[in-house]
C-alpha cells in the first residue's frame, strides 16, 4: 500500500504498451500476526472468502488494473517468490524483469525504467 500511488502512475503511463495485473496473495502484515502500526485492518486469511474480502480492499483503492487472487495453497506466491510483494515483467510468457522482494525491494520506478528501455 505504501507505494500504491507510484504503481498507479506506472499503470496509467504505460497501459498502452503493457498489460498490468495484481495478484493478491497471503496477507504479509495481518493484524493478527506481524503487523505494521497504522496498517489496514486485515486478519490472516483462513478461507478463500477471507482472501477475496481482503483483496476487495485493494480493488476499492483502484489500482488501475485487474486484481486476481492467489488460491489458498499460495501456488503463485510460491512460484514467483512474491511474499510479501514483488514486481515482474513478462514478455511472451517469459520473465524479463524480476524485482527484489518487497517491501524494501519493491520499486515501481525500476519497472518504469525497464519499460522505457523496452519502448
UniProtKB/TrEMBL annotation:
Keywords, alphabetical: Oxidoreductase, Selenocysteine, Thyroid hormones biosynthesis
GO biological process annotation, one example: hormone biosynthetic process
InterPro entries cross-referenced by the UniProt entry: Iodothyronine_deiodinase
GO molecular function, one term: thyroxine 5'-deiodinase activity
Function: Responsible for the deiodination of T4 (3,5,3',5'-tetraiodothyronine).
Substrates-to-products reaction catalysed: 3-iodothyronamine + iodide + A + H(+) = 3,3'-diiodothyronamine + AH2; 3,3'-diiodo-L-thyronine sulfate + iodide + A + H(+) = 3,3',5'-triiodo-L-thyronine sulfate + AH2; 3'-iodothyronamine + iodide + A + H(+) = 3',5'-diiodothyronamine + AH2; 3,3'-diiodo-L-thyronine sulfate + iodide + A + H(+) = 3,3',5-triiodo-L-thyronine sulfate + AH2
Similarity comment: family membership: Belongs to the iodothyronine deiodinase family.
PANTHER family per UniProt: IODOTHYRONINE DEIODINASE, TYPE I IODOTHYRONINE DEIODINASE
Organism: Gadus morhua (Atlantic cod)
Name the record gives this protein: Iodothyronine deiodinase
Matches recorded under Pfam families: T4_deiodinase (PF00837)
